[in-house]
Amino acid sequence: MTYVENEDDPARICTILCDRFRPTSDVTLAQALKYIVTLRMADEGDMEAHIRDFTAGKRRVEEHSVTLVYRTFFMLYMPATYQMTVTAIESQAGVTLEAAQNRLLEEWRKRKGPVYSQDHRSNSEAVIRYDRCPKSTENRQFRCQTNRS
């Protein structure tokens, strides 16, 4: 625990502790900018993870009181497979970063379809499928399969 002596104002104490434990220098600003500029999503990457990483990088840059057009950086490094969606978002005036992220996340979930729900299970979790038996359209059976990647 760290104590700040001779100071009673909570806002001032917070400022002192932030300056002491989160130093902002030209080096940390350069590292934060490099992180956000080089952050790219792979063609078959996870959009949720990409948004989390981008948000973390955005916060690191904002700690330095630097103003950027984050929406542009976010859209610039999307995979080519999302180019149509990115173009549609860029053509609309007044779209916020959050709205663009939500639209791309929605598109990613659409593309993943039913596979999306299976991707986030552990490898040992059993999956129960309800399939029609090929002999008759009325006869149905349950099969238990294990997800193995």
Summarize the structure.
The protein has helices at residues 10-21, 26-38, 47-62, 70-76, 83-91, 97-112, 114-119; strands at 126-132, 140-146. It is mainly alpha-helical and 149 residues long. It folds into two domains: 10-112, no CATH class; 123-149, no CATH class.
Which descriptors apply to this entry?
single chain; 149 residues; mainly alpha; 7 helices; 53% helix; disordered C terminus
Describe this structure in words.
The protein has helices at 10-21, 26-38, 47-62, 70-76, 83-91, 97-112, 114-119; strands at residues 126-132, 140-146. It is mainly α. The protein folds into 2 domains: 10-112, no CATH class; 123-149, no CATH class. Strands 1-2 form a two-stranded antiparallel ribbon. Strand 1 and strand 2 form a beta hairpin. It is elongated. It starts with 9 loop residues before the first helix and ends with a strand.
List the helices and strands and how they pair.
Blueprint: H1 10-21, H2 26-38, H3 47-62, H4 70-76, H5 83-91, H6 97-112, H7 114-119, E1 126-132, E2 140-146
Antiparallel strand pairs: 1-2
Helix pairs in contact: 2-3, 4-6
Strand arrangement in the largest pleated sheet = 1-2
**Main sheet characteristics:** 2 strands, antiparallel
What is the CA-atom radius of gyration, in angstroms?
24 Å
What's the helical proportion of residues? 40-55%
Could you give the count of β-strands?
2
Unreliable runs, pLDDT <50, ≥5 residues?
Answer: 117-149
Fraction in beta strands = 5-15%
Q: Which structural class should the secondary elements be placed in?
A: mainly alpha
Looking at the structure, what is the overall shape?
A: elongated
